[in-house]
Specification:
single chain; alpha/beta; Rossmann fold; 5-stranded parallel beta sheet; 43% helix
């Protein structure tokens, strides 16, 4: 199977076999990294970031380095992207580099960037989707359970870009996905995505956290407030409203009483004692740092498959 030259803007554009192919490649690379130590020799990756980042930036940059390539970090505010036509700038950058990772505030701008680029564009996170995170999550689940089928994953908290990508990934691979939330993030809402997920028979919604977590293999949570808004004084009132609304959906010691064996996932960074308490994230059930490590192996697989 060849994915060479493909963009990775959303997993909606990838079928089950293609998703499995990337995960299997990540497993292969993780088991034998030396085999891939020179596959990116002479290759360069442009990393364009509008949003702050830890895991996405570090994992992609290290991935290129460990595979013999080179990564260039571009802060949106210190480039001409901030004032020029996105497609024009993307076309120029793509003539220097072999692929582009872009972490954008708006998916629409990411799509414009992809239209201009002559090389593969990878979504490093936008307000609607986070495909690389979902791929790392799938790798982690496969490592812990040895399968995807007949598993139940409960997503607890605000429906957002992460839950969107997990919805697609889980329902395409046969994981029962249960969304447990009192509301959806308006910037992330994708009605078409939900309708397609419902058709698979693997998508469900349950408002009661105690009912949702029953018989779940995994409980997954994420920040209730976007990172770019968390410290913004203008967002303070909405931040307080969300905390009040979502505190009943916190993954915590009390909730785990209803399923003591459930594994806990979080894409990080976590706001401890908001969406998840210290007990849960530090417990033996927590696999959040395995997820974080697997970002590196998945990024390598994505780069290998799209560039070579």
């Amino acid at each position: 199977m060849s994915l060479k030259g493909r963009d990775l803007l959303t997993l909606k554009d990838y079928n089950k076999e293609e998703i499995e192919h990337i995960i299997n490649k990540a497993i292969e690379i993780k088991k034998n990294p030396k085999k891939f130590s020179n596959v990116m020799k002479g290759k360069s990756l442009a990393m364009i970031f509008q949003k702050t980042s830890t895991r996405t930036r570090v994992s992609f940059e290290v991935a290129m380095t460990q595979m013999g390539g080179h990564a260039i970090y571009l802060d949106w505010k210190t480039t001409q992207f901030i004032m020029a036509d996105i497609k024009d700038e993307a076309k120029c950058v793509s003539r220097y580099c072999d692929a582009i990772v872009a972490r954008m505030l708006k998916h629409a701008d990411l799509q414009e960037l992809a239209k201009g680029s002559e090389v593969p564009v990878i979504n490093g996170c936008c307000e609607k989707y986070h495909p690389c995170q979902a791929l790392a999550d799938l790798l982690t689940i496969k490592e812990k359970f040895g399968k995807w089928e007949n598993l139940k994953l409960v997503y607890m908290g605000i429906a957002n870009n992460v839950s969107n990508s997990l919805t697609v990934a889980c329902t395409k691979l046969g994981i029962k996905f249960v969304l447990c939330t009192p509301e959806r993030h308006p910037l992330s809402f994708d009605e078409e995505l939900i309708k397609e997920a419902e058709k698979t028979g693997f998508y469900f919604e349950e408002r009661d956290p105690k009912k949702a977590i029953k018989n779940a293999d995994i409980v997954y949570t994420d920040t209730w407030i976007d990172m770019e808004f968390f410290l913004d004084p203008k967002f303070q009132k909405e931040k307080e409203r969300r905390i009040k609304t979502f505190i009943p959906y916190q993954v915590n010691k009390e909730l785990l009483r209803y399923n003591p064996n459930v594994l806990i996932m979080h894409p990080l960074p976590a706001h401890r004692n908001l969406e998840v308490d210290d007990y849960a994230i530090d417990s033996k059930n927590s696999i959040v740092f395995d997820q974080a490590e697997n970002r590196l192996h998945v990024q390598k697989a994505v780069l290998v498959e799209l560039i070579r």
